[in-house]
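Why does residue order matter? Because the sequence determines the fold. Keep that principle in mind as you read this record.
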Amino acid sequence: MPQSVAPPSSWPWGGKPELLKQARDVALVGDDEPVPMPERPMFLQLWQQPDAFRAVHLYARNMRIVYGRAAGIEILLQQAAARTACNVPAC
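Structure:
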C-alpha cells in the first residue's frame, strides 16, 4: 500500500512546516525569546572584539554552540526531506 502524506493540520502555529521552523529556530538560539541572534550576548561579545584572532576564536565557539544545539533537528529535517523527495518511508 503506498504511503500517503498526512493532511495539513489546523494547529495554531500554522501547521507542520511552521512547527518545524519554530523548533529549528528555538534549537538554533537556545530559547524562544524574541531577540535576534546578532543581538545576543555571545554575538555582541564577538562584534565588540577588537583583536582579529580572538574574534575568529569567538566566532568558531559561537558556531560550535549554535550548530551543536541544532544538529539533531537538522538531521531530522534532512532525513524528512530525503524521504519526501523519493516518496517512500525510507530510500
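The chain has a mean pLDDT of 83.
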